[in-house]
Amino acid sequence: MTIDRDLLERAWLLQLVREFQDIAQYYRLNLSQPFIRITDSRTQFGSWQPYIRTLSLSRFLIEEHSWDVVLEIFKHELAHMWVSERGRDSEEDPHGLVFQEACRRLGVAPWARSATVEIDPQTARSQHRKLSEEKERQIRRVEKLLSLANSSNPNEASLAMERARELSIQYQIEMQKEARNYTYVLINHKKKTMSGHQSSIASILCAHFYVDCVSRSQYDAETREKYKVLELLGSVENVAIAEYVYWYLWRELPLLWDVYAKAPKTGTQKRRASRRSFYLGVLNGFHDKLSREKAAAEKAAHENQGRDPQTGQALIVLDKSLEQVLKQELKSFVSERFPRLHRGGTSRSGVEQDAYTSGVARGQTLELRQGISSNSRVLSISAGRNP
Q: For domain 5-129, which architecture applies?
């Protein structure tokens, strides 16, 4: 069914009014409602005109970009509004220090704080996430080693995984020499609620992959509905790795369930509750496995002056002080975007013990293999079998 353009734009305008009200309340802004309009401009996706108190967004911005991009440009213009209505827009550079302060006040994403974003948001995002040649080479080294873990030789696969793990930690160590760019990506399954196993995957990412995760609702301009999205936040490099891990686990769970459900057992393994319990078991088992591997490496490094007792080679573990620095930087970035963040727990009610226990056992042997991102881009991170 074709939706009338005027009706569609009216729905968008009403949502932008709600967004303004939510933003003003959440960030505690003392701002009066501006006049919001939608234009047909293809040369300027967003603008703020202080003399007529008008905030404009392009229809093509809304049609051609996801709502999180629309929202960041909307907040960019609100930052201009915040500056001008406090009489602080006298500086020559309209995107200078005062404007940057306003962006931090409104939790504007770093990529959306430049003048470029008003005319080319795609370029602004890609430039912010661009890696240096050295960082690209480091990531390629990790990916190359992890691709070796597809080997049918379990010992070779295990060694490749161990070496790749060490290189990943070494990469975190070397990152301290440079300023890290922080960013976010959204996971959007277009569902009204977030499943328990999606929350469990988020917990794994937060605990082991140097990112933070925030669950929130987001409007969809095409369907005019709100969906639950998961926002992954961290350095550009760590977010890329965490996104891979998310999609690997999300894709792997139903495959593992199919194998379990087809096994000759009594009961109704194909019930939704059994599947949910199995998923949670797999993820908890995988979480425990990663925790044990980390603890074992740290213990070996501590007891043997940082060297492997068998080979004598240096063990690569993340120094506690550096780990605290990484956590503090991430916390500051998350606090800037979400200054009034409230965390909720994950429900474990109604778990079927047999399915859950089987899932835990399977999760404790799970290795990272080739994953696929949400846009079907193959990421060359792999893993092998256990010996």
A: 2-Layer Sandwich (3.30)
